[in-house]
Amino acid sequence: MEMFYYLVFGAMSVVVAILEFSKNNKDRINTSSAFNAFKNNYLVVYSLMMAGDWLQGPYVYFLYSQYGFSKGDIGRLFIAGFGSSMLFGTVVGSLADKTGRKRACITYCITYILSCITKHSPQYKVLMVGRILGGIATSLLFSAFESWLVAEHNKRGYEQQWLSLTFSKAIFLGNGLIAIVAGLFANMLADNLGFGPVAPFDAAACFLAIGMTIILSTWSENFGDPSESKDLLTQFRGAAVAIASDEKIALLGAIQSLFEGSMYTFVFLWTPALSPNDEDIPHGFIFATFMLASMLGSSIASRLMAKQHLKVEGYMQIVFAISACTFLLPVVTGFLVPPSGEKGGSISFAGCIQLFGFCTFESCVGIFWPSIMKMRSQYIPEEARSTIMNFFRIPLNIFVCIVLYNVNAFPITVMFGMCSIFLLMASVLQRRLMVVAELHNKSKPEDWTSLKERDTEAEPLNI
């Protein structure tokens, strides 16, 4: 492996270590021992859940190819997963609000374990069922756990600022450290120990089972809308009304869809971008470097959110703008750096530049996750939190399915340029969200009585 990759990984590791060990009292949030126990319990569970998810990532495509399926067949399996998340996500989110978030988290574990079991079968229909189950599980992972955390945090009366600490630590561990360890562990099981590409899925099922045991024994139940009279259709309508009637929620959903859509598109584009002529690049090591960059971002986010005078809505405008610039690098290098016609070899100079840019984008991803969680906790009503969060994922999944279906129809520079435009739009919408939120906060003390009377007459959701 070239020294270049070690230098990038080593330099980033040093920066992360310096940020973590140089925190002073101004960068830390003083909390209680009861909250720390609650936070650590959640972080253990969340890390196990993310380990179950990350272990599967490196070998999904390879496993399907080992079973003899073509790229088109594999693409349809991936589309089935995103389509399942889109179709069933809102339903399971509403059920989580109505029947309990703890039950939804347990359902996630069971559903994903069943999805892992299907990987032992080379039958296409069985694998398709597994992808559908995986799509349902993904919807629960990115809604039920966060909804449970926010509701339980508020129910126990902890300070609102402490929630940002849990968010940043969850991303630092679950989307950073755990992702790196899971990738290396999966590689050891499948290749070094010779257990084959199914072994990481079996390991994932074990981690999910351990996490489910902890949830069953230590978590209490909480609900969104406790009313037994509201059916799913009424919940859908209530969530849609909340999004349509509150500009802040609508803006937040648009921002999330634009950023995450670009992020998931990047997952499919970074490999051909760095190796357009089949250059020999260490995919696993680069993936670990990206996850380390995400850890760097989450470490930065924890410092930013610890400053009470600094608003999330403010600095996220800059984060989205930087993300847009990083996705312009493949377009710029495509014009400025002459392409090489030679096949194979090591990473090109243009590839080195793009790798730095992609690491910067992953750092922005690390900032994005805890920050968007913080904003969702502020703006999304508790009564339909999981339902609304999965509503946000509908345009995201539609976008990703379209990209997957047409990934070979457009040049890679066009795809990156399109994502860059989306990220610039997210920055503009983030600016609008900050303005609307400030206007709302200024008018709230004056008009509280009239707003309360109007809300009582109309009987909408408490937003």
UniProtKB/TrEMBL annotation:
N-terminal signal peptide: none
GO-annotated cellular components: plasma membrane
InterPro entries: MFS_trans_sf, MOT2/MFSD5
Compartments in which it is found: Cell membrane
One Gene Ontology molecular-function label: molybdate ion transmembrane transporter activity
Main location: membrane
TM segment ranges: 6-22, 43-62, 74-96, 129-150, 170-189, 201-219, 285-306, 318-336, 348-369, 390-406
Keywords (A to Z) from UniProt: Cell membrane, Ion transport, Membrane, Transmembrane, Transmembrane helix, Transport
Entry keyword Ion transport: yes
Pfam families: MFS_5
Domain of life: Eukaryota
Record bears the keyword Manganese: no
SUPFAM superfamilies (UniProt xref): MFS general substrate transporter
Annotated membrane topology: Multi-pass membrane protein
GO process annotations (BP): monoatomic ion transport
Function: Mediates high-affinity intracellular uptake of the rare oligo-element molybdenum.
Protein name: Molybdate-anion transporter
Organism field: Papaver nudicaule (Iceland poppy)
